[in-house]
């Protein structure tokens, strides 16, 4: 039975971790940034050195393939992949694992003579973490990118997607050309760290993902009035930050009490203007994110939070704007892919458990165009989106072998 080389996989994961490495561990490698573009060039070299055909599409997605020189050229492709961009101060496995393990699987298949009926390919999807747009590359590939939205897409700090892609040598307006022809992907399976505590706590080595949550993000902007922080009587102040703080606490309560059992919410970006200790905040902006596996619940929560923002602002005599930023669709995984992963686990003597993904993934876009599924491995302490994110190396090896045999079965 073929198996992956953990030594080679470990070496490549460590090499990738050097792009954007932080002095205290972890990485900052945001899409289109210089470390990301250096990592992209390195990845293309590794894919070629493994004997794969490579190409980069207009959305910046990187591909390596066996038996195909692009998607849609010949027979439908069995696809795996993930992303090499990271969150700021992120870990070395989120995304990187799926790309490096996919490359390792294709390397093993090629060394074994490349005898698969269907072509097999690995993708590194652009901007999965959504610095400029959630799941950007897979969205473009799956024909879900609205060309009219591209000029307005921007990072939290205002950097526009068109400029970021331009600096990296891409034309953002051409990204929708990455859309794959209908029927060109036979199946998609992605290996990822769980990023939560469930598998580790249950001592289960492999998670089989049943469904992936939808994520909604909106920028909530409170407009108050800047004033002298010493001389303005307290009762006359129209403090935008206090409205934002009030909203933060009450929106959390709303989502927890009115969402489904799996609903979660976070405010991870707050900006206070003009940002001086001796000025009453005239404007406060926050990015409010919420997640639920049920699209209808998510939509209702978004409407209720909009109403809450207006209520909170009115109570303080100020105004508010809610600007939707992104909304990804929750996606069920394909029964055939889940069953294939489970059959592979059984053949390798590994226990598995079905679970839903509370993190967003490119697989949720792929689920709209093909049969898609995901394999999870335990995360140490459930930690992710932080510099000490890690999984045990034997867990990584097990996950990569489950990916290898799942790809082999899907491509047989
Ligand atoms: C992706 O990492 C997410 O934010 O769920
Ligand atoms: Mn992530
Ligand atoms: Mn990820």
What can be said about the biggest beta sheet? Answer: 9 strands, mixed
What gyration radius follows from the Cα positions, in whole Å? 22 Å
How many helices does DSSP assign? 11
Q: What would the average pLDDT be, to the nearest integer?
A: 97
Determine the N-to-C terminus distance.
15 Å
- What proportion strand? 15-25%
Question: What structural class do you assign from the helix and strand content?
Answer: alpha/beta
The SSE string, one letter per element, is HHEEEHEHHEHEEEHEEEHEEHEHEH
Shape: elongated
> How many E-type strands?
15
Q: What is the percent of helical residues? A: 25-40%
Low-confidence stretches: none
Ligands bound, unique:
glyoxylic acid, manganese (II) ion
Write the layout of secondary structure elements.
Layout: H1 6-16, H2 34-49, E1 53-56, E2 62-66, E3 77-82, H3 96-111, E4 120-124, H4 136-141, H5 161-167, E5 185-193, H6 198-202, E6 206-212, E7 214-223, E8 227-228, H7 240-258, E9 264-273, E10 279-280, E11 283-292, H8 295-315, E12 319-327, E13 331-332, H9 335-347, E14 352-357, H10 363-366, E15 371-377, H11 393-411
Helix pairs in contact: 1-3, 3-11, 7-8, 9-11
The chain binds glyoxylic acid and manganese (II) ion (2 copies).
């Amino acid at each position: 039975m073929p198996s992956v080389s953990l030594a080679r996989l470990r070496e490549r994961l460590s090499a990738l971790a050097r792009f954007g490495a932080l002095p205290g561990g972890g990485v900052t490698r945001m899409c289109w940034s210089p470390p990301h573009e250096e990592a992209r060039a390195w990845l293309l070299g590794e894919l070629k050195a493994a004997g794969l055909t490579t190409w980069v599409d207009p959305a910046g997605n990187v591909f390596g393939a066996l038996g195909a020189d692009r998607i849609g050229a010949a027979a439908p492709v069995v696809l795996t992949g993930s992303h090499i961009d990271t969150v700021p101060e992120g870990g070395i496995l989120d995304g990187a694992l799926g790309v490096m393990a996919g490359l390792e699987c294709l390397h093993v298949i090629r060394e074994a003579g490349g005898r698969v009926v269907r072509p097999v390919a690995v993708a590194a999807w652009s901007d999965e973490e959504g610095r400029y747009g959630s799941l950007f590359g897979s969205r473009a590939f799956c024909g879900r990118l609205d060309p009219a939205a591209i000029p307005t897409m921007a990072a939290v700090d205002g950097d526009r997607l068109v400029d970021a892609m331009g600096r990296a040598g891409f034309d953002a307006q051409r990204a929708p050309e990455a859309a794959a022809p209908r029927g060109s992907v036979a199946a998609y399976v992605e290996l990822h760290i769980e990023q939560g505590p469930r598998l580790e706590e249950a001592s289960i080595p492999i998670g089989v993902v049943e469904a992936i949550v939808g994520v909604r993000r909106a920028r909530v902007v409170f407009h108050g009035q800047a004033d002298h922080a010493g001389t303005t009587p307290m009762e006359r102040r129209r403090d935008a930050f206090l409205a934002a703080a009030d909203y933060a606490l009450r929106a959390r309560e709303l989502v927890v009490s009115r969402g489904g059992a799996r609903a979660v919410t976070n405010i991870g970006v707050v900006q206070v203007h003009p940002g001086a200790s001796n000025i009453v905040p005239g404007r406060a902006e926050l990015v409010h994110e919420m997640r639920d596996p049920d699209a209808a619940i998510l939509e209702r929560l978004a409407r209720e939070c909009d109403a809450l923002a207006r209520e909170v602002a009115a109570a303080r005599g100020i105004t508010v704007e809610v600007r939707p930023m992104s909304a990804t669709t929750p996606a069920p995984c394909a029964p055939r892919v889940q069953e294939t992963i489970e059959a592979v686990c059984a053949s390798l003597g590994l226990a598995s458990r079905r679970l839903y993904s509370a993190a967003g993934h490119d697989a949720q876009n792929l689920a709209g165009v093909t049969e898609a599924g995901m394999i999870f491995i335990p995360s140490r302490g459930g930690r992710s989106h932080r510099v000490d994110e890690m999984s045990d190396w034997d867990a990584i090896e097990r996950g990569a072998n489950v990916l290898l045999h799942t790809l082999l079965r899907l491509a047989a």
